[in-house]
Amino acid sequence: MSVKQIFLSPGSRIKVLVFIVFLNFITSSAVSDAEILVKFKQSLKNADALSSWDENKSPCNGDHEIWNGVLCEQGTVWGLKLENMGLKGVIDVQALAQMTNLRTISFMNNKFDGSLPDLHKITAIKTIYLSYNQFSGEIPQNAFTGMSSLKKIYLANNKLSGSIPESLTALPRLKELMLENNEFVGLIPPFPQDRLKVFNVSNNKLEGEIPSSLGGIDASAFNGNKDLCGAPLKACSAPSKLSIGTKVIVAVLVVVAIAALVVVVIILHRRKKSPQQADESTVSTNLNRMEQGQANANSSSPDHIGQAKKTEQGTKLTFLKEDGEKFDMPDLLKASAEILGSGVFGSTYKTSLNGGKMMVVKRFRHMNNVSKEEFNEHMRRLGRLNHENLLPIVAFYYRKEEKLLVSDYAENISLSVHLHGNKSRGVPCPDWPTRLKIVKGIAKGLAYLYNELPCLTAPHGHLKSSNVLLDATFNPLLSDYGFIPIVNQEHAQEHMVAYKSPEYKHTGRITKKTDVWSFGILVLEVLTGRFPSNFLQQGNGTDTDLAAWVDSVVRDEGNLELVLDRDMTGSGNSEGEMIKMLRIGLSCCEVDVERRPEFKEVAAMVQEIKEKDDEFYSSYASEGDTRSSKGLSDAFVHVTFK
Question: How many angstroms separate the CA atoms of 275 and 253, rounded?
Answer without folding.
Answer: 35
